[in-house]
Amino acid sequence: FKSPTNRLGGGSMLRPSTHEEYQAFVKESLLKQLVDTGQTSVLFTQAELIAKMWLTDLTPVASLVAPCYSTSSRGAPPRDPVCLFRSLLLIRLAGYTGITKWVQTLKSFPFFAILSGFEPGDVPGVGTFYDFINRLWKTERKSATKIRKPFSPRRRRGKKNEKLPLSRPNIVDRMVKRILRHEGQPLPMQPEDVLNAIFQQVFVEPSGKKGLLGDASNLVISGDGTPVRTGANPYGNKVCDCKSKGIYNCRCPRRYSDPEAAWGWDSYRGCYFYGRHLYELTAASSPYDLPIYLKLVSARRHDSVSFVVALDEMTRRFKDFSFAACLLDSAHDAYPIYELLNAKGMEAVIDLNKRSTGKAKYQGPLCLTKDGIPLCPAGHVMAYHGFCRDRQRHKWRCPLTRKTWNVICDTPCSSSSYGRVIYTYEKDHLRFFTRTPRGSALWKKKYKERTASERSFKRKKIDYCLEASGARSTKMWFFCCIILAMCQHIDAWTAYEEMDFKAVIQGWIRESEVKAA
């Protein structure tokens, strides 16, 4: 077989090594490097890591990144992109955060080089990895200038556990109308297209086929955003000579190592942060809280704006999936979002924003509670009596028909023993007349699954130490985020397969002993 580290001559197409060839290379090389030299214990202590790479088929990566390489016959032959990408995944799976230290580890410990697909002693340098990442990030846009004036200190402090209001209140409505107007048109080219394609075809879709996302024909997703703090200095470094003149608080242009970062509000901690926002759409029905689509946006952007963009891009990319419902917190409680979800055939399970509870009024004499439940003329909560599928409406009856409620009414509005009946239609007011009655036990049960996004963020930020990477650009931050999302899928595959890889390693050793005898 050919070694996965086989380099191709200049001008050749990138030929992917099959996953079976990689497995054969790993098995033979590990036995030669570790078993024959008496280092068998390393195989058993790292059995879980070997299993993760053994189950991760990265063969499609080569064809997806092929357009990123030149077809010219000039220059040195390229490294195998599959091995480079596998090694970048191993950085995080093995508990490392930096490429420089990882390259030193590859040179010192042949085990990690073999698991990446490289021959020991033939390991790529630091620049090769960064050059590969640059190839995956396709953009013609000029990077932000590093020398500019400092941010203005004007910032209105928000409240803990509350998002700052939108700076432009009608922006969500305008975005939704534009999306619905251009429905069906292809997405414009974006710098992260190659990484998104790898994530979709190599990780998300295989997880869907395994059933790890839930029912692929009836997916339930949840959306949320989280702050990502950059490692750069938010105040910049002075390049003027004002300090020598005794001026210490000048407004002269400064040098910023991460010029694309911005100040944003962290509602959970009740403080401002400097960096970006990571918005994620997660499979809420997944037992492993697996991410489906990621969007890295400015720290100043509101979650409702990020959701509209992310949902539109996700539904246009994942055409083989059918999305049934979307679970969102109160920051997304905007009527245009209900209209967008309704247009895409998705049920909206969104918590009401306390700022808008005073607007719970319906046309005519009918009044609603803050949860959208109709009130009878006497002010009592109406009793829910089911959903009429033939006419797509909810049925509500007089509360006097519920004997266990012990409702007392001296002026009943109907003389019928059946009591007064009121029907509500979802299309009349998407915000209050939801498909699952708002405030019902079933609605609360569905809404509880929204925390899948928060658990997914916990995996990235605590288990994989996302913010410890200290990146200084949008390109590197997005690469870190999507690599960790891929690692989440790999962890889920390993847990799902329940493979006892230590027994597999013992079989390798017995097989090698038989051949040696």
Topology:
Layout: H1 19-35, H2 40-45, H3 47-55, H4 60-65, H5 81-93, H6 99-108, H7 110-116, H8 126-136, E1 147-148, H9 171-181, H10 193-210, E2 219-229, E3 237-238, E4 254-255, E5 262-266, E6 271-283, E7 291-298, H11 303-317, E8 323-328, H12 335-343, E9 347-350, E10 367-368, E11 374-375, E12 383-388, E13 393-397, E14 421-425, H13 441-448, H14 452-463, H15 474-497, H16 501-516
Parallel strand pairs: 2-8, 8-9
Antiparallel strand pairs: 1-4, 2-6, 3-4, 5-6, 6-7, 10-11, 12-13, 13-14
Helix pairs in contact: 1-7, 3-15, 5-7, 5-15, 6-7, 9-11, 9-12, 10-15
Calculate the mean pLDDT score and round it: 86
Q: How much of the residues is beta strand, in percent? A: 5-15%
Number of strands: 14
User: What oligomerization state is this entry in?
Assistant: single chain
Uncertain regions: pLDDT < 50 for 5+ in a row? 1-16, 358-365
Listing every helix as H and every strand as E from the N terminus to the C terminus, the arrangement reads: HHHHHHHHEHHEEEEEEHEHEEEEEEHHHH
Give the biggest sheet.
6 strands, mixed
Helix content: 25-40%
Tell me the distance between the termini: 24 Å
Number of helices: 16
- Helix-strand makeup class: alpha+beta
